[in-house]
Structures are given as structure tokens and as C-alpha cells.
Amino acid sequence: MLARLCNLDRLVHAMAARGLDGVVATTAQNVFYLAGFNAIAHKSDEPRPYAVVLSRHAPEQPVMVLADYYLATFRAAGSWIEDVRPFRAVMMPLDLPPRRSDIERFIPAGAAGFDGARKNYAFDMPQAMRGALRDLKLDRGRVAFDDPGFGMRLALEGIELVDGYDAMMHARAIKTGAELRLLERATQLNQKAIERAAGLWRRGTTWRELAGAYAGAAVALGGFVRDPGAMVWSHPQGAEATITLQTGAEDGQIAPGTHVMFDCHGTMDCYCWDGGKTWVAGGEPEGAGKRNAGATARAAEALLAAMKPGARVSELQALTREAYRKAGLPNAADAVIFFHGLGLSHMDIEQRTADGRPNLDWKLEQGMVVPLHLLVPGGERERYWLEEVAVVTPQGGRPLFSWGLGPITAG
């Protein structure tokens, strides 16, 4: 059976703090988080062919509702959820009357363990959802949907429907051991892919070729990147210091001595990787670029030491800026210092707390995975970037990259 990824105790706590009787998860990330099911072939804006229904009063007995064509796939994945309720979906004909025997098309011959699915087979998703909510005694409760629009379209009577985004993110913020292992593996994949891509640079290499080399390396190592690309930063030429992001259409040659800021996104087993640092094409930082590299490394050391439970984002920003000043950076006020959570998304932080307050200046907790972003803006030979990914511990941030805080030396 697949290891349970979700921090179930924390989710129950989040539900109790918000007065929720249950949650209904239909977004791909939350379904994977709760059920370990990674459905293939669906884009984010398509109607959800699956849902996890979980009661705060019986959290160990959730219900999985899913399209009939996913039934065997779900069972093969080995989820900890045992109550699986399929519904007749798009593959079944509209020109023929629905039959309970339709479900047999999706059950392997001679397979055991499908009696519950046969018994609970429904002819559409709303019917399956109403049955699950009724059996979990949520048909008269206060239920949070991670996609409230889905809940509204069900037109359920008797349920108080609320937004479940923050309850789910509160749970996802603190990683379980199984999640940490996935994030560690994804981060190491990113590191290897960056080093491979940098090692392929030659005079005349273009930005598009470098981005393609990174994407190819990431996929070859078992990961996935998304359109329009995995490398986030754009790289203005000359003395231009504007902070911009990639469009995916950048090209032109990467001149020797150019500071390339690797900040790469992708996923492995649905968990995100992020981050990277600066590589100098064909050489090492010089002049102001060398100064910025040294100052960033020292600032990062101070920041990692301070990334303990209880620290707030604003406090960490002030501490890091002061560390930059002490390290001799003349424009410390211009340094960009920011944080976010990391897990199944590049947020994994609730936007509002249980009492409804905005969670902008959020507090670190033990077990969070937090990328720290340090950018000294500048021209193509001065700018310097470092994004480390750290696990929050009582001793400070534990880096997930293994290459240290200095510039990339590959290539």
C-alpha cells in the first residue's frame, strides 16, 4: 500500500479550528495529498472526475468518489482509502440506458476487493457525492470544498458550503516523513539537471538551447517540466538590471562571463522542485559580481541559522538585509529577499488563519519546507542569485541542495 502522504492530524486540527465538519477535495494536488492518486489525462480547468470526502468526526474512513474508468487504476495505485465509489462517466454511451453491470467493464477479470465499488456504483457524480456525504453524516454539516465552484454546481441542500483552501494548506504546510523524502529526491534531481545543463555550454550556446538542455536533463532524470519552460528568470543584457521573468521565447547567445541565474521549477511524483543559484558562463564571478557572490553566501549562512520555528518572514528579511550590509554590499536595500512554502505547490501556506486574519507575514513552523530567495540585482556580470530549499528545524534551516552556497562551478 502507498505510504499515506497527508498530515491527517494537522488537517483535523485545521478543521476543528475553523468549525468544519468535513472537507471535499477535488483539485489534483489535494486528491494526491489525501489519497495518493495521481490521475492521468486531465487538465486543471476540466471538470473533476474524482473527489475525496473526509469527515472530521471519522477521519480514518474517508470516501473516494471517482469516474468508473479510473477504478482499476486507483486500486492498482494502492491508496490507504478503502471506501471507493465509482460513477458512470463519459466513456459510457448516452444512447443506451445505464445499467449497474456497466461497472464490470472496468473491473479486471477475477479480481477481488471490488464488491464495495459494485454496491456503490452510481449513474452520475452528483448521485455518488450525495451518497458519500450522507453516509459520512455530512449532508447537514459545514463542509469545506477546495473548489467551492464544484460544491455550488452540486446544488446540495442542507450543507453549509465554505472555502476549504486554507484548511488544506494549513495541513500541507508541515511535511510528513514521506513528503520530505519526495522533496529531497526532487531537489537532488534539480541540482543534477542544472549541473548537466551548465556543463553543456559552449561559445555560441543560446538561451533557448540552455533551457532545452535543462528540460531534457530533468526529464531524463525522471522529472517533468511545464510549458513554456522550467527556467524562471529572464536575463537582460548589458547593464540592464530590471527584474523580469522568462516568456519562453528568449534566444540569443550566452556570452562568456554572463551571470546565469538558475531558478528551475518542475515536479517528480507530483512534488515540486525549486531553486538553484548563479553560474558564470565559462568562468567565475569577477569584480562586483565576485563581491555580490561572497555577500550572498554570508547572508544565506546567517539566514539559514535563523530559520527556526517561530521566526516570521519580516524578521528574516530584516536579519538577512543586515547580514548583507555587514558583508559589504553597498546596495543592501535593493536586495530582494523572499520566501514561500514548497510541496505539492509553490505555496503550501494558508492565506488566512483560522480567525480570518491575512497570513502575509507568516511564521515558520518545524517541518515546513521553505525556499529562501536572495537576489542582488545588477547587469549581466554583476547580478547574483541564490535560492536554497530548507527544512525548518529547531537548529535552523537544513538545506536540501548539497552543493553549498557559492556559485555553480560546472561547465
Task: Explain this structure.
This protein has 411 residues and is of the alpha+beta class. It has two domains: 8-172, Creatine Amidinohydrolase, Chain A, domain 1 (3-Layer(aba) Sandwich), CATH 3.40.350.10; 177-399, Creatine Amidinohydrolase (Alpha-Beta Complex), CATH 3.90.230. Helices cover 31% and strands 17% of the residues. The strands form three sheets. A six-stranded mixed β-sheet has the order 4-3-2-1-5-6. Strands 7, 10, 11, 12, 13 and 14 form a six-stranded antiparallel β-sheet that branches. Strands 8-9 form a two-stranded antiparallel ribbon. Helix 1 (8-17) runs antiparallel to helix 7, helix 8 (177-199) packs across helix 9 (207-220) and helix 10 (288-306) packs across helix 11 (313-326).
Main traits of this protein?
alpha+beta, Creatine Amidinohydrolase, Chain A, domain 1, Creatine Amidinohydrolase, six-stranded antiparallel β-sheet, 11 helices
Beta-strand level of the residues, as a percent range? 15-25%
Instruction: Please estimate the helix content.
Output: 25-40%
How many distinct helices? Answer: 11
Question: Residue-averaged pLDDT, rounded?
Answer: 96
User: Runs with pLDDT <50, length 5+?
Assistant: none
CATH topology of the largest domain: Creatine Amidinohydrolase
Number of domains: 2
CATH architecture of the largest domain: Alpha-Beta Complex
Order of helices and strands: HEHEEHEHHEHEHHHEEEEHHEEEE
User: What form results from the Cα inertia axes?
Assistant: elongated
Strand order of the largest sheet: 4-3-2-1-5-6
